[in-house]
Write a structure and sequence with these properties.
The chain has about 40 residues and is an all-alpha fold. About 40% of the residues lie in helices and about 0% in strands. The protein has two helices and no strands. The termini are far apart.
């Protein structure tokens, strides 16, 4: 029996939550470190 577990990334969990909340707009700061999250 395998002991491997599936673990979602923070990005996956956050996107899932935003979809569940019907969020359509997210703002970011140009040049800031969180921009990779939005790509």
């Amino acid at each position: 029996m395998s002991s491997m577990q599936h673990t979602d990334t923070v990005q996956q969990v956050t996107f899932r939550l935003m979809r569940e909340l019907n969020m359509t707009t997210v703002f970011g700061n140009p040049g800031s470190t969180e921009l990779n999250f939005f790509e």
